[in-house]
Amino acid sequence: MEKKKIMLVLGTRPEAIKMAPLYHALKAQPEVFNTVLCVTAQHRQMLDQVLKVFDMTPDIDLNLMTPGQDLFDLTAAVLKGMRNVLKAYQPDVLLVHGDTTSTLAASMAGFYFGVPVGHVEAGLRTHDLQAPFPEEFNRQVVSKLTNWHFTPTEFSQKNLLAERVPESTITVTGNTVIDALFWVLGRINKNVTLRQQLELFLNEQLGFDWQGVRFVLITGHRRENFGDGFLRICHALKELALRYPAVRFVYPVHLNPNVQQPVNTILSDIPNVHLIAPLDYEPFVYLLKHCHIVLTDSGGIQEEAPSLGKPVLVLRDVTERPEAVAAGTVRLVGTDRGRIVANVVELLDNNSCYAAMAKALNPYGDGKACARIVSILRDI
Ligand code: UD1
Ligand code: UDP
Predict the structure, then answer these.
(1) Given 76, 202, 224, 296, which is the most exposed site by the fewest CB atoms within 10 A?
(2) What's the predicted TM-score (pTM) here?
């Protein structure tokens, strides 16, 4: 039997985390698949962090990140870069993930070149093209040209069916982020030396007893929050930090200058606010496991935190991940300063409210999403 040449294309930190277990699952069957990894490097440092943790070596690296890159340059660069890659490698299948600019432009390149596309984490929708921007546009366009849709939940499957995507092209697989999370948790649980290294590293980074005191873990990077939204978020955090001096606020700050600027300006001189560099995936997951509350606008963290029983307050008005909201462990609080403060205060002060949200559940998968995707790819 001729091997199938499968090319995975990824550009950013979350794509790399969520495609890592799939990459290894494909690589584990060398008699069936010739697996090729292409990175656009839309992210550089934050992508390289993940490639290292998951032991992934790109076959092609387009090295496209430029500081403060805009959507025009990035989209054009990925599209043109992928033309040459597809010509040179002629893959049988192109696998893309989610909704970034790399995902959009790489799948368009596949479509132009006549390579069928498999879309991992397909079918997420807010139905509002401005939120998240530009991701909702990206994911809707990618669905139009996808041949195999791998959806994380039945809810996302229904979104595609409502858009008249043929049912036979959709497989509900679970989200591969849960595969990645279980993989890392398993490694941390099994390996005492790794655990000690992580603890030492986090002690150095944070300088407080993070295993003993309550701390809020914060991340944020959504484009639609840039400007006033981020200012309101930062002022809410400042108010909370001053009101609760015994609670720590840990914030690994995304490298986007639109995030760095307001966060560093407003929050850098507050003793119980810890602004740190983006963490490698292992220390981040370990911190997630130990935190009290999560405050985030991230997609991936909304999916991971419920598995660990952590209440999540989402700094957005809408989410394409309603499953955990329905289950009561995730709440949308937007970017209004008063609303953010009130919701954190409620979780810090009201034990029964906290207990109601701190339930461990896995609406996004069972850790076997990659096996399901691989079994579909074997049969095509
Ligand atoms: C991107 C994705 C977003 C995804 C997010 C995950 C788009 C339009 N946005 O947003 O969907 O949720 O990644 O984090 O696809 N930078 C660095 N080093 C890095 C990464 C970024 O310095 O490793 C800085 C650079 O100045 C870069 C800027 O951040 O120009 C913006 O990066 P970009 O990928 O355009 O946007 P993100 O906000 O990271
Ligand atoms: N993450 C990480 N280090 C950090 C912050 C987040 O490894 O300092 C991980 C997190 O566990 C999740 C992913 O990065 O798996 C989310 O990435 P991000 O929030 O940048 O993007 P999104 O999920 O919103 O697209």
Answers:
(1) 76
(2) 0.98
Q: Which of 272, 239, 221 is nearest to 342 (CA)?
A: 239
Domain that holds residue 113: 4-175+366-378
Which listed residue (254, 274, 316, 372) is catalytic?
254
Q: Let me know if 135 is a catalytic residue.
A: yes
For the question of residue 346 being annotated catalytic, the response is no
Ligand 2 centroid to 335 CA: how many Å? 19
Q: What is the DSSP string of 184-201?
A: HHHHHHH-HHHHHHHHHH
**Is 180 domain-assigned?**
no
- 221 labelled catalytic: yes
Output the ligand 2 site: residues, CB below 6 A: 13-14, 17, 177, 219, 221, 252, 278-279, 281, 284, 298-301, 304
Residues 303 and 260 in one domain: yes
pLDDT in tens, 214-254: 999 999 999 999 999 999 999 999 999 999 999 999 999 99
Beta bridge partners of 275: 251
CATH assignment of the domain containing 22? 3.40.50.2000
Q: Could you read off the pLDDT of 102-134 as tens digits, one per residue? A: 999 999 999 999 999 999 999 999 999 999 999
Closest CA to 163 of 184, 185, 146: 146
Cα 68 to ligand 1 centroid, rounded to whole Å: 8
**Residue 254 known to be catalytic:** yes
Residues 130 and 278 in one domain: no
> How many whole angstroms separate alpha carbon 124 and alpha carbon 135?
10
The domain tally of the chain equals: 2
Q: Mark whether 15 and 52 lie in a shared domain.
A: yes
